[in-house]
Every structure is written in structure tokens, then in C-alpha cells.
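HOLO CASE FILE
Compound: fe (ii) ion
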Amino acid sequence: MKPTEILSDEHRVIEQVLRCLEKIADEAQSKGTFPRDSAEKAVDFFRNFADRCHHGKEETHLFPAMEAKGFSRDQGSTGVMIAEHEQGRGYVRAMAENIARAAEGDAKALQAFVEDTQAYCALLGSHIEKEDHCLFAMADQVFTEDDQRKLLLAFQKVESEEMGAGVHEQYLTMANELADHYGVPRATLGRAGHVPGRCCH
Ligand SMILES: [Fe+2]
Ligand SMILES: [Fe+2]
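Model generated. C-alpha cells follow.
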């Protein structure tokens, strides 16, 4: 498996929880009661699985490896991707800040949570599409087998040393519990996310 295929598989799990987040926001708006437990789980997932682990692999390992092959951070896609990660962190922070007040019945906080989830889902959805269909295809073209092997090892270290043993798996379980609760199909993993010919390069 290539490093980009691991990241694309993680995208499928992130999309699964984005669908759950949309349903959490729908539930909050239509019923007027706030599903605090699910909202806290989703925010925890996006903070730790999507941002700390997945974006960590991209920002600390994949993007620098691409830049070492000549991709420009300042004028290229990696810089744009990092800026979008940062924008996403802002939305997740804002969602987290509004959970307690929304759960206590504050209509403004509930509406702000809903608007932040909508903006976050749109941002991350298009971000993932750019990486799957453009950036990762470009990365696959420039990496040697040795580069791929080093990146795979670095990704394993992020999971085992930075996240901690078993933590990655705990978040996969959480993603499936949320999906089952909201009737969202579980992601099908183990296949490449690339669609040949769709690269925007
Ligand atoms: Fe990314
Ligand atoms: Fe990504």
C-alpha cells in the first residue's frame, strides 16, 4: 500500500463522520434539542483523528517530502492545503465553544454550531477532493519506492508514538458507532481513492 492510499482511506473515514456531523446539525435544528454526546464525540474525532493524526501525517511528513522533490510551499498546493487545515481548526474550535451553551438551550449558540458545521463540511469535503484527485496523484508520480517506504514508516510512528498505541483504532470504532447511530454507511477501506484522469495539474 502506498502512503497516499493510507491517507485516502482515512479520507473515507473522515467523510463518514462528516455525514454524521451533518445529521447532528440537522437533528439540532429540526428537533430543537441538542445531541450533546454525539456533537462532543464528532468534535473529538475531528480534533484528534482528522487533525492531529491525519493532517499531522500530511503536514509533518507528506508535504515536506513533496517539497523536497521540488514542490513549492509558497506558490503551490501544499501551502494551500496547510492554510485549509488551519481554517478547519478554526471551525472545530468554534463548534467546541458552542456545544455547552447549545446544550443548555441557547438558540444563538445552536445556530452558530449549525453554521460552523456546514462551513466545515464544505471546506473539508472540497479539501479531500483536491488531495485525492490532484495532490496525491502528483505525489505518487515523484516518490521512489524508497521514499514511499520511509513515509509508511513515518506514518506508523505518528500512530504508535505520537497518538499512542490503540488510539487510532479507538477513533475508527468511534467513527463506526456514530455512523451506526445516524444510519450513515460505514466507509469501505483498502482501495485507492485516486481517479485517473481527474488530476487538475
Ligand atoms: Fe489535508
Ligand atoms: Fe487529507
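CASE NOTES: The chain has one domain: 3-182. DSSP finds six helices and no strands in the chain.
CLOSED: yes
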